Amino acid sequence: MSQPQAKFLKDYQAPDFHITHIDLDFSLAGKQTEIIATSTVRRQGSHQSPLILVGDDIQLQSVLINGEAAQYVERAGELVIETKLNEFELQVRSSLDPEANTSLEGLYMSDGAYCTQCEAEGFRRITYFLDRPDVLAIYTVRITADKQAFPYLLSNGNLVESGETSDGLHFAQWHDPFPKPAYLFALVAGDFDLLEDRFTTCSKRDIKLQVFVDKGNLHKAHHAMASLKKSMAWDESRFNLEYDLDIYMIVAVDFFNMGAMENKGLNVFNTKFVLADKDSATDDDYHGIESVVGHEYFHNWTGNRVTCRDWFQLSLKEGLTVFRDQEFSSDLGSRAVNRIHAIKIMKNQQFAEDSGPMAHPIRPESVIEMNNFYTVTVYNKGAEVIRMMHTLLGEASFQKGMALYFERHDGQAVTCDDFVAAMEDASGVDLTQFRRWYSQAGTPQVDIKEQFDSETNTYTLTLAQSIPATPDGSAKLPLHIPFDIELIDPAGESIVNKVLDFTQEQQVFSFENIQQQPVASLLQDFSAPVKLNFDYSVAQLVHIMRYATSEVAKWEASVALFSQSVWQNVERLQQQQAMFIDPRIIDAFKGVILAEDLDKALMAEILTMPSAGSLIEQKSTVDLDNLALAREFVVLEIAENCEDELLATVRELASIDDAAARSLKNVCLNLLVKVDNTHAELAQKQFAQAINMTDSLAALTALNSEPSAIRDQLMSQFEKKWLKTPLVMDKWFALHATLNDTLCIATLKALFEHQAFSFNNPNRVRSLIGIFAAANTFEFHRKDGLGYEFLADAIVKLNTLNPQVAARIITPLIQFKKFDSERQQLMTQQLNRILKVENLSKDLYEKVTKALA
Ligand code: B3K
Ligand code: ZN
Fold this sequence. Notes:
Blueprint: E1 7-8, E2 17-27, E3 33-43, E4 51-54, E5 59-65, E6 68-69, E7 71-75, E8 78-82, E9 87-96, E10 106-110, E11 113-117, E12 137-146, E13 152-155, E14 158-164, E15 169-180, E16 187-190, E17 193-200, E18 206-213, H1 222-239, E19 247-253, E20 260-261, E21 266-270, H2 283-298, E22 307-308, H3 314-332, H4 335-354, E23 366-367, H5 376-393, H6 395-409, E24 413-414, H7 416-427, H8 436-439, E25 445-453, E26 458-466, E27 481-488, E28 494-502, E29 506-511, E30 519-521, E31 531-533, H9 538-547, H10 551-574, H11 583-594, H12 600-607, H13 612-616, H14 624-641, H15 643-653, H16 659-675, H17 680-689, H18 693-703, H19 709-722, H20 726-737, H21 744-751, H22 762-775, H23 777-780, H24 786-801, H25 803-809, H26 811-814, H27 821-835, H28 842-852
Parallel strand pairs: 2-12, 18-19, 19-21, 22-24, 25-31
Antiparallel strand pairs: 1-23, 2-3, 3-9, 4-8, 5-6, 5-9, 7-8, 10-11, 11-16, 12-15, 13-16, 14-15, 17-18, 20-21, 25-26, 26-29, 27-28, 27-30
Helix pairs in contact: 1-2, 2-3, 3-4, 3-5, 4-5, 5-6, 6-7, 9-10, 10-14, 12-16, 14-16, 15-16, 16-18, 17-18, 19-20, 20-22, 24-25, 24-27, 25-28, 27-28
The structure holds (3S)-3,7-diaminoheptanoic acid and zinc ion.
Zinc ion (ZN) binds next to helix 3.
């Protein structure tokens, strides 16, 4: 077998043919599902090349051109059609078996309903087509199916006709007036409960809103509907963007490879991001639903109306849409807490990707399997790049840039450069150097030196930037970095608050009229996705925690205080010295628990001790065994010394019905249970009295740090209660997967047989296996290698069932460079084993070969 080949951005060529219209006729009949695709095809330019369509796993029946048998060859993944005509009607008849499709790409079944997933290249699993985002066509779709089993027949756009045919069948015909690429096509057929509502747009158009959920779940659809209405209103008020069709549908399905999909007018969602009621969903789940519903809705303009020329431009729509959904959440809720969540994703996951074998620029230059590039780099670093432009331009000019972008490109498939050009032209800001953010992989490091001259009253910051080499070989030239700082005087007054334009390899910034040595709060609000190298003293960090104007800066300082102490103790352990914590650190955390002027959700963030995974990301090499001991020590020292304050907080907030209060209470409870077993009773009591999932799950999580009889008892109560609610069982599986205990892996293996578990369902796989590998750091990295073997076994199994999911959960196994040589060897041993698997998917092939290179 030949090895999968990479495609390169530099090889982009406009298509030889365009398809302007397509009529799809689906006869949904299980294993023998028939599809007739009739397209209007137009040759572009004066070439003589044949028309080459792509397709995967299609059983071809016939090909006609203008009603006559066409001359064609079918070869690996392609249909080559010879014709001299410049414009013609092409009819392709084919069939496929959606029931056998476990990859969940193309047309497949989820719990008895037909549904589709076409991004990135799933449409070619439905019919032979020009499956590339720069081919935009107008779609008409007719669906025929059994009326009783599939009362709802849905597709993009507006319903134009429906009715019954013979033998208990019925049909629906849909028309989408907006030309779109094939990846935005969707079809759903099934039996659902339906929640309906309406929205009046700013120009007084009346839009019908529909949320389809599995039978019996109607009461869990209200939050998603409310989130949709908020999204529509917000996009009008902040971005001046109005919805365009007369109907907007969301369908929730249990079998789904990712979070949701923005198909034009017919979003398909993972149930996880639709279904919620207080009993079964946590405050975080509610927040997640609001943000994903928003994200998919915002794609209607950033992604659908203006789409990508090719898949290398993915960040054009994803980075921008993540930026938009982050702004939506921040305008509606706490800006600081939302920012902290975004920063955590960057530092814990994106920095890891940037320093690992899959490092790529936000606009990748070469790709083997496109599905591997729906990454934290393209999405989250992409959003940071948009955020930096927003910082450099300011809101008003940024909005002018958005308006110009739509004015120029509505209805087109464009590039990241087109977006930057619109921003530049609308604002007059020169973004030439800034564009390097699109082509350079890796996390820039910023080294900082400070100097205070008390004679001249001058404070000086010297900034130096460098980017470590990455395996993709992309250039590493100086970047345009907006660097946000605050200078705080000894009395706690803010004396300077500004964004520095940091563009050179090394640059000096001087501040005059500074009377006393200030404390600098650097890279405030994470104003650029860079790593900061500055040796803060404990006193400086405590000062920032107390006086910084920015709440995010307070949190950053608390993370730095905690982390410094952990690393110092790792060193002490390596030198066989006793561990120690500076009492000023304990006082700083105690000060936060006692603070009266801080937002409770922010306090909860500060009191959430940085995870082992996030600590690992701070270093290029890690002594994992001592890290475990040192982290445990610092957490315990803080918790023990704050026991009274923690206890008082838990009691005070016990019955306050507010998400921020709950999050603070539950963080405190978690720390308390670590201090002393007697506090386990508190958790037990909370579990017994809980009236919402947030509190039940927090009680269980607090008890989940080590095995105990109480834990086991509550876990089985929980299991009995929720056995028939898959999304809650996911939480139960995840608790098992994060137990820090040597028996963890054996338990997980036994759970493969659990009636609620299935390898075919991505949510179940992620909660049991994905979470284990990504979040149970010390069990996954066991010295005997059993954690790696467990993950590799699952990946081998998923290689044929669902390659996309397999390639997603492999991430912790390919990021092995930081660990000791024994662990590295055990990890690469498993990777080599995966590489030898017969019929290894392109998805895994790309990641494993890059890791082993
Ligand atoms: N655009 C989809 C992601 C598709 C992933 C394909 N592997 C969801 C989103 O980003 O909104
Ligand atoms: Zn998206």
